[in-house]
Specification:
Blueprint lengths: L2 E8 L2 E6 L2 E6 L3 H12 L3 E5 L9 H14 L1 E3 L4 H20 L10 H21 L5 E6 L6 H8 L4 E5 L7 H4 L5 H8 L4 E4 L2 H15 L7 E4 L2 E7 L6 H9 L1 H11 L5 E8 L6 H14 L7 E8 L6 H21 L7 E4 L5 H10 L2 E4 L9 H9 L5 E5 L12 E3 L4 H13 L2 H17 L2 H13 L1 H6 L10 H10 L3 E5 L21 H9 L4 E6 L4 H8 L5 E5 L4 E3 L6 E3 L9 H14 L4 E4 L3 E5 L5 H19 L4 E6 L2 E6 L4 H12 L4 E6 L5 H7 L4 E5 L8 E3 L2 H12 L5
Parallel strand pairs: 1-4, 1-6, 4-5, 6-7, 7-8, 8-10, 11-12, 11-14, 12-13, 14-15, 15-16, 17-18, 17-26, 18-19, 26-27, 27-28
Antiparallel strand pairs: 2-3, 9-10, 19-20, 20-21, 22-23, 23-25, 24-25
Helix pairs in contact: 1-17, 3-4, 4-5, 9-14, 10-13, 11-12, 11-15, 13-14, 14-16, 20-26, 22-23, 24-25
């Protein structure tokens, strides 16, 4: 039976010492409300941190947590006090939080706190390793505190179905690239099968960051990671509107609404935020001051109720924010208020839910002015509590909620004048217009509830198995026992191997992609197997292949994608087509030089029978865009000739159309005979014609991501090397 395993930074409980004993109390929240019914239905479990671990022994605490695990499926991950503080208050909240919200100048970079973050993620992984049933479980990991965890779980359980949802924004790549551990964090996330974001904007930023940091291309709906398709989803989280609506209709809240509205006829604007510098509270107060200054007719007729829930009070940055807000409130009330009217009513404390519901229901305007937010559920809570009312939502365009709440009045919180004008429009808007907007927003909040979000997200994760087995899904990894059995059973064998990206990792500069120390011994052992033909067929120059592999007896070499071939025994290089003359280069070179000027980090490489434009060092998005222009210009130039334009991995090459890897293999087959067993491995488009020519009877292996006609796929050159080493080893007995 499928079981949901929710993994979040915190357990949905609070445990504290009461006298001589420990007591845990279940806590609530949007995530808890959304997932609780699903967990109960499927006998699911929730794994999380119960909070700071006390120093010394705490047997009562352990027993209480064990009781909650036994009775409620809530499993604690204990983290030592010093690790917990550096992990949570340090790296998660002082580094990742401001960075993910787009404020790199506020981020603190301390290598020690990252070590604690990694330690905490590894502790979560250790608990999961003992609990996960890979064949049955759906593992759903949540938020920025656990970005390394998907890859750690994948390492322990390669076949597990793993989801990750980021509740906060994902920033632009130029912001995320500031993070020293940027590659590790992205690789951690790519351990998941499904990565969810609040908005398509966040998803698109993640895709661009993958390209710029890891050099991984992706599609809007997914990214191929070593043969495993990681789905990318934009799935905005909702609320459970029913309790808010019921609360707003309750008699006690209705009485409180009447009290708040009173008999003065004043209009009420409400803002509810954590006291956090991403929420834009000072910006809101300055915009409200601007509004009262430019629209004096509203003085005495409208008040802003600002609720600011204390947050991270011990952090100096937040203490400075608290002082700034206090000063602004004092200045506005002192300069513009009167004996019977305060422009700003400031409540710096947590407010009970019934009182919040009353504020929402009573307010004519709800003002969400976040400088950056993953979603902001205050906007949705306000709409739920308004019900059949006619309140207006003033919503920052930088909150994730703005992507789906189109009937709100959108504002730029940095624009005081523009925000003040939008507030005046909200207060002066005719009632029928306000009611129409509210009705549309309420219908959307009900439809896109927290339950709908959870069910759709879980359905995405359940579909991992179906997706990976479908015709457009992920290729299986090659079965080493099956390949080796076929290899040993064959009377004759042929192995055809690309070089860059297949036998060695791709390097930023081609000159840096030299063979590692293990490659030559593996090739020698494979060539030494009886009746085995081994060919390295590469886009490299003949001189490079000679220098690296010329001393290996029995090895065939093909340079420039097959234009030149060298038979075993140290013979000379022979052209695939004798008499071919590359007199076309003078026409093509100026085109490449023009684009070289457009992208100075690119490079032109001249070979005997081809010209290549390399752009691996060019900024990725610009390089990919410019490569399209390069290819189009070259194709126009060579149309109707014996030349072709080939796009490889960050390279565009002009060569003779007959210089292909499949033609090189055909020449060797003609010389040495067609083997009973054939294997080909390659990583880019230059290998696809060979895969197609060999057909279904051969073992064809795509290395890395991307579309392919190969039968199987491996993630890295090291996997190819391990496979070849196994084939080169003579079986015992």
């Amino acid at each position: 039976m499928t079981r949901l395993v929710v993994v979040a930074n915190r357990l949905p409980l609070t445990i504290r010492r009461i006298g001589a004993r420990w007591q845990a109390v279940r806590s609530s929240g949007g995530l808890v409300s959304a997932l609780d019914p699903v967990l109960r239905r499927g006998d699911g479990i929730w794994i999380g941190w119960p909070g700071e671990t006390p120093d010394g022994d705490a047997p009562g605490r352990t027993a209480e947590l064990e009781r909650w695990e036994r009775d409620h499926g809530l499993i604690a991950v204990d983290i030592p006090r010093h690790v917990g503080r550096a992990f949570y208050e340090g790296y998660a909240n002082d580094t990742l939080w401001p960075l993910l919200h787009g404020f790199p100048a506020r981020a603190v970079f301390d290598p020690g706190t990252f070590l604690a973050y990694r330690d905490a993620n590894e502790r979560f992984a250790a608990v999961l390793a003992d609990r996960v049933r890979p064949d049955d479980d759906l593992v759903w990991i949540h938020d920025y505190q656990l970005m390394l965890l998907p890859a750690l779980v994948r390492e322990a359980h390669p076949g597990a179905r793993i989801g990750f949802f980021l509740h906060v924004p994902f920033p632009a790549p130029e912001v995320f690239r500031v993070l020293p551990e940027r590659a590790a964090m992205l690789e951690g996330l790519l351990g998941a099968d499904v990565i969810g974001f609040q908005t398509h904007e966040h998803l698109a930023a993640f895709r661009r960051t993958l390209q710029q940091v890891l050099g991984i291309d992706s599609r809007m709906d997914g990214v191929d990671v070593g043969g495993r398709l990681v789905a990318l989803e934009a799935r905005p989280i909702g609320i459970d509107p029913a309790p808010w609506e019921a609360l707003a209709r309750s008699e006690s809240v209705r009485r409180r609404v009447a009290e708040l509205r009173g008999t003065t006829g004043r209009r009420t604007i409400v803002a509810v935020d954590r006291l956090d510098d991403t929420k834009g509270i000072p910006e809101r107060l300055r915009a409200f001051r601007h509004f009262l200054g430019t629209h004096p007719e509203w003085r005495g007729r409208a008040s802003l109720i600002q609720v600011a829930v204390p947050s991270r009070e011990r952090v100096p940055r937040y203490a400075a924010l608290r002082r700034e807000v206090n000063e602004l409130v004092g200045e506005i009330n002192g300069a513009l208020g009167s004996a019977d009217w305060n422009p700003v009513v400031y409540l710096r404390r947590s407010i009970p839910q019934p009182e919040i519901a009353a504020l929402y229901a009573a307010a004519d305007v709800c003002w969400v002015g976040s400088l950056r937010d993953g979603m902001n559920l205050v906007a949705k809570e306000y709409v739920a509590c308004q019900g059949d009312g006619a309140g207006v939502l003033l919503l920052s365009e930088f909150a994730g909620a703005a992507s789906e709440m189109g009937e709100a009045l959108r504002i730029n919180p940095y624009d005081e004048a523009g925000t003040a004008a939008a507030l005046e429009r909200a207060l002066a808007m005719p009632e029928d217009d306000r009611a129409e907007r509210q009705a549309a927003l309420l219908a959307r909040v009900r439809r896109n509830s927290a339950f709908a979000w959870a069910e759709r997200s879980i359905a995405d994760l359940e579909g991992v198995g179906r997706r990976n087995g479908g015709p457009s899904g992920v290729l299986r990894q090659p079965s080493l026992p099956a390949i080796r059995a076929a290899f040993e059973a064959a009377a004759t064998r042929g192995c055809y191997l690309d070089y860059d990206g297949t036998l060695v990792p791709i390097a930023p500069r081609p000159v840096d992609a030299r063979p590692g120390p293990d490659l030559a011994p593996v090739l020698r052992s494979l060539v030494a197997r009886e009746a085995t033909t081994v060919l390295i067929v590469s886009g490299r120059r003949a001189s490079e292949l000679d220098a690296w592999f010329g001393s290996i007896d029995g090895l065939w070499l093909a340079a420039e994608h097959g234009a030149l071939i060298r038979a075993p025994g140290g013979g000379t290089w022979e052209p695939l087509q004798p008499g071919a003359v590359a007199d076309w280069k003078a026409r093509v070179r100026p085109i490449l030089e023009y684009f070289l000027d457009q992208a100075p980090a690119s490079a032109i490489e001249e070979k005997e029978y081809s010209l290549a434009w390399h752009y691996r060092l060019v900024e990725p998005e610009f390089g990919d865009w410019l490569a399209g222009n390069v290819a189009a210009a070259l194709e126009e130039q060579v149309a109707g000739t014996a030349l072709s334009v080939l796009r490889g991995s960050k390279v565009i090459e002009v060569r003779f159309a007959w210089a292909t890897k499949s033609e090189a293999v055909a020449r060797i087959r003609a010389a040495a005979g067609q083997p009973a067993f054939e294997l080909a491995a390659g990583d880019d488009r230059t290998d696809e014609d060979l895969f197609e020519a060999l057909g279904e009877g051969a073992w064809t292996i795509k290395v890395g991501s991307g579309p392919t006609g190969a039968r199987t796929r491996v993630a890295t050159p090291s996997a190819v090397l391990a496979l070849l080493a196994a084939l080169g080893t003579v079986p015992a007995g």
